[in-house]
Amino acid sequence: MADEQDIHEYPGEQVDVRWDRRLCIHVGECGRAEGELFVGGRAPWCDPNVVGDDVEHVVDVVERCPTGALTYIRKQGGATEVAPGRNQVVVANDGPLYLSGDLAIDGASEDMAGVRFRAALCRCGASKTKPFCDNSHRELRFEDQGAVGSTGEPSIEEGGRLEVKRAPNGPLLVNGSFTIVGGSGRVAWRGTRAALCRCGASKNKPFCDGAHKAIGFQAD
Fold first, then answer.
1. Is 2 part of a structural domain of the chain?
2. How far apart are the C-alpha atoms of 185 and 176, rounded to whole Å?
3. Domain-located, residue 151
4. pTM (2 decimals)?
5. Does Metal-binding count among this protein's keywords (predicted)?
């Protein structure tokens, strides 16, 4: 569960924005977005009222956050975030696995609202907040450019729930229809089941090859 310093609320007249620092790895989609919804060094850093009646701008910027650290609540009701039609895993160059879709992630607490649709999962093995990324790959100088050798199935039925479970001291077990996008942006793999490396040692990344056993990887 979060403590008082983990989750920050930014109230607006028409929409509230919520930031969960446990999930944030400072990708910068919010701060680099056009407009003044997010301004570094300003107090408050996020001000939903600066966009006036343009609630959709807030929605658009918040939903760009790839880690699920940002979420929103409309004051007047209306549409909430929904899962995209395709479940997707992006293998970031020297970084985490970025998941988007209809997600059910083992290890997510009930108050991590954003990871229902967007999440960044550790694949270097060093994160202190597993299964989520905490940028430890940078300190570790983890290197993997996100090439994907296997192609998987020729076609799949898109959508549906994507379940991610943690094998104790082992890989991420992903079940459901999904696509893997390589670090180059290429749609590389399609399928309904895969074991994805989270120890950082597999020679067949992003897939597990059993290397976690050889290195004595330990994680829930």
1. no
2. 21
3. yes
4. 0.95
5. yes
Q: What is the pLDDT of residues 154-175, one digit of tens each?
A: 999 999 999 999 999 999 999 9
Q: Give every CB contact of residue 145 below 8 A, 6+ residues apart in sequence.
A: 93, 94, 183, 184
Residue for token pair 């056993």: 213
3-state secondary structure 152-209: ECCCCCCCCEEEEEECCCCCEEEEEEEEEECCCCCEEEEEEEEEECCCCCCCCCCECC
Q: How far is CA 149 from CA 8, 91, 94, 173, 187, in A?
A: 41, 12, 17, 19, 11
Q: State the sign of the Cα–Cα–Cα–Cα dihedral 124, 170, 107, 180.
A: positive
Whether 82 maps to a domain, the answer reads no
User: Tokens 């550790």 belong to which residue?
Assistant: 122
108 with 210, same domain?
A: yes
